[in-house]
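Before surveying the methods themselves, it helps to consider a single example record, giving the amino acid sequence and backbone structure tokens:
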Amino acid sequence: MPYLKTIALLFFLFFVAAIAKCNRYSLDSLNALAKKGTHDTDKIFNINLLAWDFFQNGFYDSALKKATLALSLSENIQYQEGKADAYNNLGVVYYSKSDYNQALQCFFNGYKIREDIDKKRANIKNTKALAAMLNNIGLIYWRLNNAAYALSYLKKGLKIRETTTDKKDIASSHNNIGNVYFDKGNAYLQNKDSLAAKKEYQEALAHYLVGFSLKKEVNDKRGITSSYSNIGLTYTRLASFENNKDSAYKNYQTALYYLNTNLSLRQQAKDTNGIAAAYNLISVVYTDLRQPEKALSFALKALSLSKSIPKKEIIKESYESLSDIYEQKKEYKKALEYRKLYSQLKDSIYNSSTNEQIMNYQEKYEYEKKSKEVLQLLRQNELQQIAIQSEKEKRYIQLSVLVLVLVLSFLVFLFLNYRNKTIQKAEIEREINHQEKIRFKEVLEAEDKERRRISSELHDSLGPLLSAIKLNLSASAGIPDKQINNSIHLIDHAVSEVRSISHNLMPGVLIQLGLLASVRDLVRKINDTGQIKITFESNFTETINEFSEVNLYRIIQEMINNTLKHAQATTLFITLEKTQNHLFMTISDDGIGLKSKTLNEKDGIGWKNIQSRTAFLKGTIEIMPALPTLKENIQKPGTQVCFIFENLFAENNIS
């Protein structure tokens, strides 16, 4: 409704002109408003906005001064929201200046005020601010290496954010919690406690995946890129714990998928820092895979790019990667050279950080010395402005309130009318979707029921009949009649075909023993033909509802058929992995390879059936080229198809 936007904009401009308030201006405009605010609270609001703008533009000292001024003025008139905003601004500035103790004190003060406000009058704005304070406190404890406190406050913040509809904030909380768990895993790894480290990395991955899903929903491009990096690095860590080579390879393969996607997105965004960091991460994976030449290529790219920025942290990481790579190549002289460069740059970064902290303390001392004088001058100017403007304010406020009431009444009427239409439309769409889902489920159930009936008829009726015919003909087998013997042979073939068709329509193993047993039976039979070698692995023993098991079996059956027909593959890997209530199914081969775009353009009924059954089980499909295995001289790129079914193990997951 474009006219709603026009009316709201006209009202907003008029109201700003009438009472001299604003939400966000340039630094010059905010300075002017801060000097001539007509109310104490307006002035404080504008000064806090100015402090935030200074912070975002990198003027930390100016931001510190304005936030301190806003705090002092708020304390004079006991303006709680102004104090909370000022403490938040002070906290983020101190945090950016690495003064974590000061930042922590400011955030705690702001949190207490926001908590008191929330008890008296809860609103969305205060709820978001309260969650942000908790999140900031958790981040500082993370920086101070106190993981227990960090997780405590971050999870409190997440719990509050989950009561709102802001998926971007919720995703941010999950990502921060994942970072803390990841660092805990690193700490356990340094202490050589592999079991504890693996558990922490798995916790980190779970939170990263939830955050990744939410960022996709709101199309948070920067956040999605960061998630690809975090998830890829976590899979790299998890791969190092695997004793089984195939399992380790699959984790490295998944890590490279996420890290390569991260690199691609960084390149699209022309994020030079991010590209250099992505090169370093990929080099680490290839080093772990003991492919030093590939690792060396990425590490050298990272070093070259980071030197051109320059970015000392990434240069330092590049030196460390190159040292590890040359050590693996047994070029120990070069490994030692890069290890020395790494140590020298690490010491240099530490010394620079220490000097910067000393300068920050000096600036703080100089500011505190002058802050009283600035406050005194501002109070004098404020009293003069109030005396001159008091009469004009009354008239402007009266007129503004009248116009506000009229415009708001009109806007409320339009909004309610629009909302009612939107609700009705949404309800109709939900009902249509629900009915379509019910019809689709009935079609699938009817199809499976008909398969069972035909299978039973073939097995119980046609099978015995053919066997009886064979017995009658066998009774005459003593007669040297070539046609009778040929008939017996053809009946044997027919009985075999009937049994095969009956099994394909509805395998008895699936009905009697469930999904895992039926898949193993299918794999065994195909392996017996010698056409292809199939490996099947699963990490769970629980049963799923029968409807889901039938659909999963049909998906696997159709994927195997597609591989046999089109892939020219010699090996096929099938894995079913349970994580919490989710099922991750991966099917990869070493065939000629197939791009997801080509696959989506295919008109085959088989692939459409796979997509339909996956969508009905609330699953998603990701298609990617399989990476080279640990074996040498692999000529074909291969294909890997990943299916993700969320909450498949929860009760009544199919509705």
Summary: The chain is about 75% helix and 5% strand. The CA atoms of residues 18 and 396 lie 6 Å apart. The beta strands are 533-538, 571-579, 582-589, 619-625, 639-645. The longest helix spans residues 332-475.
